[in-house]
Structure formats: C-alpha cells, structure tokens
Model the fold of this input.
Amino acid sequence: MERINCDIIIVGAGMVGLSIANQLIEKNVTRNIVILEKENDVGLHSSGRNSGVLHAGIYYKPESLRAKICVEGAQRLKNWVVERDLELNNCGKIIVPQREDLDQQLDVLFHRGKSNGALIELIDENQLKSFIPQARTATGRALWSPNTCVVKPISIIHALKQELLDKGVVIIFNQHEWVVNNRISEIKLSNNDIISYGHLINCAGLHADKVAHKFEVGLNYMLLPFKGSYWQIKKECTIKPKCNLYPVPDLNIPFLGVHFTPSADSAPTITIGPTATPALGRENYKGTNLVEPLMLIKNLALLSKLYVTNQSGFRRYVHEQAFLNFSPLLIRSAQELIPSITLNDIQPSKKVGIRSQLFNQNTNCLEDDFICLEGFKSTHILNAISPAFTASFALADLILRQSNLIP
Ligand SMILES: Cc1cc2nc3c(=O)[nH]c(=O)nc-3n(C[C@H](O)[C@H](O)[C@H](O)COP(=O)(O)OP(=O)(O)OC[C@H]3O[C@@H](n4cnc5c(N)ncnc54)[C@H](O)[C@@H]3O)c2cc1C
Done:
C-alpha cells in the first residue's frame, strides 16, 4: 500500500479538470496535483465528443457566469490552440430565424451578445447568401458572429494532458471505485493506496452529482443526461456551408437546436446536429449499452412532470427537439435553415455525445448556468454545460477564485 500526499486532487480528467490543473500551475499555486480519472485515457466523454465550436458569448443572460467568462475563455483557448499549431477553422457563425415569430429573438441575441462583449452584427439576406448561398432566413435578417471558430476537441485535450504530465501532474487512470473519507481528507483507491489531499475539486462531468453527494453536497441536484447525435453531409453533396449555421434557439431551454458545423480539418466535414434526446443512461452512447433502468425511470417521471407543468416552456422542447433522432424529423429541422437539403444528402455520423444537464429538485427547473458548490475542503462543479469547453481556462480561474485558491 502506497501513501501519496497532494495539495490538490481533481476528480475527472475532462477539459474542466485539466484546465484547473493548468491554471493551478500557471498561477504558481502548486504543482503537487493528482488527477483521478475513471477511464483509461482522457477525452472519452463530453470533452472529446462535443461540436468543437468555440462560442462567441452570444446566448447567455448578461448576469450569468456563462456570460461573464465565455468571451475571455474563447479568446484564451483560441490563442492556446494557435500557439501549439493545433487544428482551427476560423469560419464564423450565422444565426438565422427559422420562423417569422423568432425575428424579435434576433434582437434579444444581438443585445445579449453586445453586452457580453461579443463581436456581432445584424446582416441582411444578401449578406447571408454571400456566406451560404443555399441558406434561408424567414425574416430577411440574420446575425453574423465573425469570432466563432471550430477546433478539434480531442487534439486539444490530448495536448493539454501531455503538457500537464510534463509539468509533473500525476494522472491516475482506471479509478472509478475510489472511496472518500471526507472527515480526514483522504481517498482510498481500488488498489488500497491512500491519497491525502489539501483540497478536492470535483470535475466529474456526467457523474459530478453522484461524486458531490459522496461529500453531502448538492443533494437537491440530479443529472438528466441528453444525448446528442450527429449526421454529416455526404462528400459528393454540393451544399457545403463554409461557416456555422444555427437556428434562433428557444432561450428557455438549454439546447441550441440542430445546426450545421464545418469541422477544423483541412477538408472540413460538415456535421448536422447535435440532437438533444433524453438518454437511456449517462454513458449510453450506443444502442442499449450502459442503460441505467433506475435512472431512466426517475428521469422519465421528471420529464413527464416538466411536460405536464410546461415548466420553462418544456412542452415546446418535446415537440420540436426530443425526437430529432429520427432522420425524417431531423431533416425537416435542417431544411428550416437550408431548404434544398434532403435525406439523400446526409448520412449518420459516428460522433455522439451526452450532455450533463442538471435538474434542481427544489425549484423543479433545469439549471441554465454553471453551478460551483463548496463543501468541506472540496469544490464541486455540477453543471459544466456548454460553453464549459470554450471557456475552460476562464472557468478554471473562476472556480479557483471561488475556492480561495487564487486571489
Ligand atoms: C453533444 C455535445 C456538444 C457540445 N458542443 C460544445 C461546443 O461546441 N462548445 C463548447 O464549448 N461546449 C460544448 N459542449 C459542452 C462541453 O463538451 C462540456 O461543457 C465540457 O466538455 C465539460 O467538460 P468536463 O471536464 O466537465 O466533462 P467531461 O469531459 O465529461 O469530463 C469528466 C471526466 O470525469 C471522469 N469521471 C466521471 N466520474 C468519475 C469518477 N467517479 N472518478 C473519476 N473520474 C470520473 C469522466 O470519465 C470524464 O473523463 C458540448 C457537449 C456535448 C455533449
């Protein structure tokens, strides 16, 4: 049995956990950091399975944490990517109203973007067509975000892992059976090794609620996983949007709607998605693999309640987004943005991710901002939803400041 002493232990080697380790070193707090990861490598969950869009900070309510850190975080991650010569597609993004009644929402987004510090501009139909000739706007207007770009999340997370290892951070893989003794700040690993820590930071993504509950923190929160499946435009298809094309989202729910995204490859693949369908398990990426029946029953009951009470306009989500896994429905949604695209032009993509969306049992609402809770010698990041990848370095600073680990 080995005994390890560390200043900080981080649970979860996703982008948030690795960024926190990075910032602890950047800010000269400590290099004596251990990261516990349940998988045998990094990037096997959200951080390696997302759309790779570095968001520009348009959607978020100005007083929210997401609004406060997105613009700065995106710029910092973009600089980091450029300095390391990793894949980057500086393609920008257009948001179009897909129905006439959504035109006002464009103004809401424009003002939110402006107050969040995003570079954003209203454009007309001719300008839209000059970017994507086949695109449609229902109202003759659209929003152009020149700063939105696309990266390759898996390249970033592997590069960051390597840098941290080179700086002496210890990452212990294959650790999902660890036990905590919160009172004496010790963790016992599956091989009986003991790690004693000064402070623990829970960045366990899809499992962050369960980890927090081990510390008696956030007991009113539970996670609702939503699966994001993607399709892609076939190589031979002549429709090739050069920039991101998004619909105006329903701002009451935390999903942005099915969109077109060119990848950061030299010959970009264009994905359509992700959908947002209730997942059968936290890691149910494929078929019936890793279905969690108990969680599913509990979640379906909750979702039905949200539907009946129409909390946060949830009924609209169910009607417009919950069943987009069926390609005839997905293509109808895609056609609202590009009317000429057909089922023959697309094929399923292997890419699939699951969002760790948090539900607050006290308020009966889905949380729409990052939630960072403090426990005894521990901090828990419970709702690291989008744009947590984009903003990861800035989010790490925010978490460390809140935990009094940096001034
Ligand atoms: C389909 C989809 C599309 C998205 N698109 C974008 C986008 O375009 N731009 C953007 O900014 N964001 C996007 N996001 C959100 C973004 O991916 C997440 O906000 C971000 O990756 C969260 O990082 P994380 O480190 O918290 O989680 P994760 O990457 O899930 O990492 C958590 C880690 O914790 C480990 N872990 C879990 N439990 C334990 C345990 N008990 N012990 C040890 N380790 C454990 C897991 O194995 C995992 O490696 C998207 C997400 C999805 C699902």
About this structure: The mean pLDDT is 95.
